[in-house]
Specification:
There is one protein chain. The protein is built from 19 helices and 24 strands. It is an alpha/beta fold. It folds into three domains: about 240 residues, 4-Layer Sandwich (Glutamine Phosphoribosylpyrophosphate, subunit 1, domain 1), CATH 3.60.20.10; about 180 residues, 3-Layer(aba) Sandwich (Rossmann fold); about 140 residues, 3-Layer(aba) Sandwich (Rossmann fold). An eight-stranded antiparallel beta sheet has the order 3-2-4-1-10-9-11-14, covered by helices on one side. Strand 23, helix 18 and strand 24 form a beta-alpha-beta unit. The longest helix has 21 residues. The termini are close together. The chain binds 5-amino-5-deoxy-1-O-phosphono-D-mannitol.
């Protein structure tokens, strides 16, 4: 939520900042702005409502000189998206400019105190309160900006990643973080600052991840310095990040979401590589090998996650319970963190997050670690906050996911969970050799299976045209595919704005069946599994009530074909991996319906890719 970017060095800052904002736009896109200091030390701030392209238009012909600057793309928390609430925010005197990602929870109290001291406010944001607080401290204590930032942050309760510059100082950016991502890129005689290393990967591969309660002093004439809020020097750990720029581009696809759907055969190759031996089908995860005893002794596993990652975790629950015979609970991270949960030493918490930055999931990880529980992370973004906060983990390695609707991360997460279950189950002896090999072999074949599944895209594109009228959808599935139904419904609602609900197929008759009529399509997942016949009966029940059915079923399934209005045929693999297969046509269905409805697929309204606020 909100993207921040900064630059200080020998190049013109504005093109770098604007490019960085485009790359960070997935984090928020309701307003954008930039602040630059030119050689004379003048501070120029430009900001407006709308997307980064609107900002680009707005700044044309303006005074953009300067080799130092900060920029921001916003996802509104306090105050509606408008020009005044856009960042950067300037202090009352206009001397200091600040960009902020996060929420200052005690901003009201701070604001009232500042108003009593004569400050007035131009925006409704908590961020303007912070910049004025910094100015107030700098003026009353007659201290340098760095010290004023440090003292101000000690008064702040909440989450932040901030960058601050001041008029008259064309050399220095002060940046700080608490619970919101921030990374400093080290170049040759230049520094970059961003919410996401991927946004500045074309300039450098060397990154320093700023930790919570740390302040980075980024000065063009000095080595990077990082201080704690207590004013002690912090360790600087430079990490290398390997990422190719092509992974951040659409590569000829009209949308990132479509590109990411089509990437799945390849991303699963990357996800599985080095983890399953193609000859022996042996599954090895270093995160499990290194903590073998923990996994062998685990009495309970608790998944914590949000959104799509939570749906993947529900599949992880099935996989681990059936293959490892360890009881599993799946928690919304946002509920878990405030529930005073009972955690024991022999529990394992598994945090699942594509971005590795989701505020609730990160807080759940911190809570579990404080309780002394071992925490395993399943993340995509390498070096992300959750990946760094966990005791061990397994990356899903599907590459940057930029479309707001998660697609390849979901299939990567389920794939890692299947490997995790096999690795633990094998060590524990709770899985038969035959089943272990069957699932491992099916995992190895997943890339080609998904190539096959993707051939249904043209049919789904046609089918989608028929359903753009619908105002409500229901998705039904059972067993492993109940979470797939939830995920299909989430995909549709977030990008098409059509209301959609996922339900376990058999629960249908306990209420939702009342909704069925010719106006409300049902997507029924009826692939062969041990509840197939029952799901087929549920389809009949819907049919009998005039419902329209789109069934996802096996090729040549005559029984379902007879009762469904439309069928989407998929190849069948071992039951526990079918969610990976079935999710692909559901992603395509959501995508094409949204496209035909003229929605902004990659940047749907009100959403942001990385939810770094509560
Ligand atoms: O980055 P995370 O996996 O932690 O994100 C969790 C959710 O915010 C995310 O999955 C969200 O639900 C997606 N927009 C779904 O497509």
């Amino acid at each position: 939520m909100c993207g921040i970017v900064g630059y200080v060095g020998w190049r013109e800052a504005s093109p770098i900042l604007i490019k960085g904002l485009h790359r960070l736009e997935y984090r928020g896109y309701d307003s954008a702005g930039v602040a630059l200091i030119n050689e004379k030390g003048e501070l120029n701030v430009f900001k407006c409502k709308g997307k980064v392209s609107d900002l680009e238009h707005f700044i044309q012909g303006k005074e953009l000189a300067g080799s130092i600057g900060i920029a921001h793309t916003r996802w509104a928390t306090h105050g509606e998206p408008n020009d005044a609430n856009a960042h950067p925010h300037c202090s009352e005197s206009g001397e200091i400019a600040l960009i902020h990602n996060g929420i200052i929870e005690n901003y009201r109290v701070l604001k009232e105190a500042l108003i009593e001291n004569g400050y007035t406010f131009r925006s409704n944001t908590d961020s303007e309160v912070l910049v004025n607080l910094i100015e107030y401290i700098r003026t009353t204590n007659r201290c340098p900006l760095l010290e004023a930032v440090r003292q101000a942050l000690r008064q702040v309760v909440g989450a932040y990643a901030i960058a601050v510059i001041e008029r008259g100082n064309p050399n220095r950016i002060i940046a700080a973080r608490q619970s919101s991502p921030m990374v400093v890129g080290i170049g040759d005689g230049e520094y970059f600052l961003s919410s996401d290393a991927a946004s500045i990967i074309e300039y450098t591969r060397d990154f320093v991840y700023v930790n919570d309660a740390e302040i980075a002093v980024i000065d063009r004439n000095a080595p990077l310095k990082v201080l704690t809020l207590d004013n002690h020097d912090a360790r600087i750990d430079i990490r290398k990040l390997e990422l190719s720029i092509s992974q951040l581009e659409k590569g000829g696809y009209p949308h990132f979401m479509l590109k990411e759907i089509y990437e799945q055969p390849r991303t699963l190759v990357d996800c599985i590589r080095g983890r399953i031996n193609p000859e022996t089908c042996e599954v090895k995860l270093s995160g499990v090998i290194d903590h073998r005893d923990r996994f062998l002794q685990a009495r309970r596993i608790i998944f914590v996650a949000c959104g799509t990652s939570w749906h993947a975790s529900l599949i992880g629950e099935h996989l681990i319970e059936s293959i490892c015979r360890i009881p599993v609970e799946v928690e919304y991270a946002s509920e878990f963190r405030y529930r005073n949960p009972i955690l024991r030493e022999d529990d394992i918490v598994i945090a699942v997050s594509q971005s590795g930055e989701t505020a609730d999931t990160l807080a759940a990880v911190e809570l579990a670690r404080k309780a002394g529980t071992f925490v395993f992370g399943i993340c995509n973004a390498v070096g992300s906050s959750i990946a760094r906060a966990t005791d061990s983990g397994a990356y899903i390695h599907v590459g940057p996911e930029i479309g707001v609707a998660s697609t390849k991360a979901f299939t990567g997460q389920v794939t890692v969970m299947a490997m995790l279950a096999l690795a633990i189950g094998h060590e524990k002896g709770t899985v038969s050799e035959a089943y272990y090999h069957e699932v491992a072999a099916a995992l190895l074949r997943l890339p080609e299976t998904l190539e096959e599944v993707l051939k249904v895209a043209p049919q789904i594109a046609d089918l989608s045209k028929i359903f753009t009228y619908a105002r409500n959808f229901i998705y039904l599935g059972r067993g492993y595919n109940y979470p797939t139904a939830l995920e299909g419904a989430l995909k549709l609602k977030e990008i098409s704005y059509i209301h959609a609900e996922g339900y376990p197929a058999a629960e249908m008759k306990h209420g939702p069946i009342a909704l069925i009529d010719a106006e409300m399509p049902t997507v029924a997942i009826a692939t062969p599994d041990h509840t197939y016949e029952k799901t087929a009966s549920n389809i009949e029940e819907i049919k009998a009530r005039g419902g329209r059915i789109i069934a996802v079923c096996a090729r040549d399934d005559e029984q379902v074909r007879r009762s469904a209005d439309y069928v989407i045929e998929v190849p069948v693999i071992t039951e526990c991996l079918m969610p990976i297969v079935v999710s692909v046509p559901l992603q395509l269905l959501a995508y094409y319906i949204a496209v035909y409805k003229g929605r902004n697929v990659d940047q749907p309204r009100n959403l942001a890719k990385s939810v770094t606020v509560e």
